[in-house]
Design a protein that fits this description.
The protein is an alpha+beta fold. It contains 2 helices and 6 strands.
Length: 135
């Protein structure tokens, strides 16, 4: 496996992700920001942040699978959430947990969370982009 996830002893442990990823693979994979569209371009979970997070993360997984990678190969995630406030964290985590359960994921790579005013389509509440490293 080309990615090792680490929680350094000098940093606080964050339940939602690991603080560091070490990549030893030879190919970088950049996945464009994924929203909660299904394969037909229909928004999944309109008005439901948890459902949109789940679908967006599953779309990241589908994009990676297409090039022979998996979520285990993700070195870094960036999550954009419309009108972010800390009280939305439980819904964000619910969506991630549901996606992880479906994908069999146990650890999350380093991630950045950014609050944004809007996304490309008004009903989209979240967008997730990923960088992966594969052998």
């Amino acid at each position: 496996m080309p990615i090792t996830l680490v929680d350094p002893s000098g940093l606080p442990k964050v339940d939602a992700y690991r603080q560091v990823s070490v990549a030893t693979g030879s190919r970088l994979v950049f996945v464009a920001g994924q929203v909660s569209w299904d394969a037909d371009g229909v928004t999944v979970g309109e008005g439901d942040l948890a459902a949109q997070v789940e679908q967006s993360y599953l779309n990241v997984a589908a994009a990676l699978a297409e090039v022979g990678a998996s979520v285990a190969d993700i070195a870094k995630l960036t999550v954009y959430v419309v009108d972010w406030t800390p009280d939305k964290m439980p819904l964000l985590m619910e969506g991630i947990t549901r996606a992880f359960t479906k994908l069999g994921v146990t650890a999350t790579p380093p991630a950045s969370l950014l609050g944004v005013a809007t996304l490309d389509v008004p009903e989209h509440l979240v967008e997730i982009e990923a960088t992966a490293v594969v052998d």
